[in-house]
Amino acid sequence: MIANPSTKYQRFVAPNYQNRTWPNKEITEAPRWLSSDLRDGNQSLIEPMDVEKKIRMFDLLVECGFKEIEVGFPSASDTEFNFIRKLIDENRIPEDVTIQVLTQSRQELIERTFESLKGAKQVIVHCYNAVSPTFRRVVFNMDKEQIKALAVKGAELIKAESLKYPDTKWTFEYSPEIFSDTELEFSLEVSEAVCDVYQPTPDNKVILNLPATVEVSTPNVYADQIEWFCDHITRRDSVVISLHTHNDRGCAVAATELGLMAGADRVEGCLFGHGERTGNVDIVTVAMNMYSQGIDPKLNFGKMNTVVREVEYCTDIPVHPRHPYAGELVFTAFSGSHQDAIRKGLSDIKDNPDQFWKVPYLPIDPFDVGRSYEAVIRVNSQSGKGGVTYLLEEDHGIELPRRLQIEFSKVAQMFADGEGVELTSDRLYQIFEAEYFNAKPALEIQTPIDIEEDTEGNTHMKLTLKTPLGDKSLDATGNGPISALVNGVNTLFGWDVDVVDYNEHARSKGSSAHAVSYVEMQIDNKTLFGAATHANTSRSSLKAVISALNRAIDKGLIALK
Ligand code: KIV
Ligand code: ZN
User: Fold this and answer.
1) Which of 177, 274, 277 to mutate to test the pocket of ligand 1 (most atoms within 8 A of CB)?
2) Please, how many CA atoms are within 13 Å of residue 554, restricted to the half-sphere of its CB?
3) pLDDT, tens digit, for every residue of 15-63?
4) Looking at domain 444-554, what is its CATH homologous superfamily?
5) Does domain 28-315 fall into CATH 3.20.20.70?
6) pTM for the full model?
7) 144, 326, 447, 521: which could form a disulfide with 548 (CB 3.0–4.6 Å)?
């Protein structure tokens, strides 16, 4: 890079439209959408789509709800021509869908374009020519009059050609290319001249598409350009103002949204922002942004994963894992504090299902785009207790007491560090099971267990404990089964262990009608947990004590002697 970029790059001089009103406007309804995936997306792919992929893309776009679909540049290649013929000949275009084709302003191209469309019910014919100063000078060496004449000629040829096919409903579209980098007055002059040819009416409008072919400034400048154009075009009620933004500065979504606020009626773009160079505007994001504001976008991305898979298949380009609304990671929290907040937000929504969606870190309900909640909270070596707790509870019905959440999240982190990968919900459960339910079995209670309560409320317990030193008979008393067992092992092995907390709950998932018990034990000034599950609550609590003791033996806190 050079030290002083101002010697090489000129700042874009913005129109600074003082009558602008768009900053006070809001987007309140969906625009008309036009997908150009089958043109831009296709032409800008390393591996262009073959007819089979084009059909899949077309069907996908129809399924997502697009009513206007650009199907190609039929005069540019036989593949595009044949694809369009296939759509028409095989009746693949639904009644309420209008196809659009692109052409340049040349007689032979226009004739070939119309030939490809024979028999179509409704078509938008889109003609464009470059009008910007750079193109006029560098590419065409033409003056303004010549450029305007080219646009008018194209319109005349298209209109004349369309008259040969009266059974098709024709709509005409014109784009002054690189509108974003052209004198506004000249774009307007050429567009007016094109409209003079087409003679649009409120019932038969012309589409004026105003492309930011290359994004040259901040989105507010594009919005000013659009509002200026909307205010100055005559026959405003007979034209549809269409936006076509590219993403050279990474602002295509913002430019489109501000362009809609500035008065545009229609948006051209691609799924996930495919298209030349940095791509066209990403229609998925613009539509989902509307949805997140409570506006029906008139497109349906309820099966987002399918849309991602299909687009990846057709384009052979992966969707970025952080792509808004669609990326693998966008509804995912690894960070403990985020997980905790999400967990609380989700349970708040569960408790108050009629309130508006307000869940920390989740702008929309992942469920609405076909994502499951399991994928939201994920655990890696940097995660905190929130995620671990959430996954065990949601997926496995294990409701850890608070201090056990802290203890087990450290165990989980150790595994995540060791394995160097994210821990799935099932792996997490396996680790919990191994650590607590199946804690290395130094001690094991043998059945039968003889428990009796006397008239003063004391519990007398007799059982056999299997130990590595051989079977031991335990005969003890306590104020309940747990304390009897603890007293018994203290006597048998000369320990001084105590139970400081006990929790239990019925297990709602994973297996039916089981109790899950958790004991927190004090052993040699340290506390540690045991956990167990059993169909019988009392057995479950005793097993939890044994689980804690086994963990303590394994960690060398107590020894068998
Ligand atoms: O970006 C552009 O200017 C285009 C035109 C063909 C409308 O794609
Ligand atoms: Zn474009």
Assistant:
1) 177
2) 18
3) 989 999 999 999 999 999 999 999 976 778 988 999 999 999 999 999 9
4) Alpha-isopropylmalate synthase LeuA, regulatory domain (3.30.160.270)
5) yes
6) 0.78
7) 521
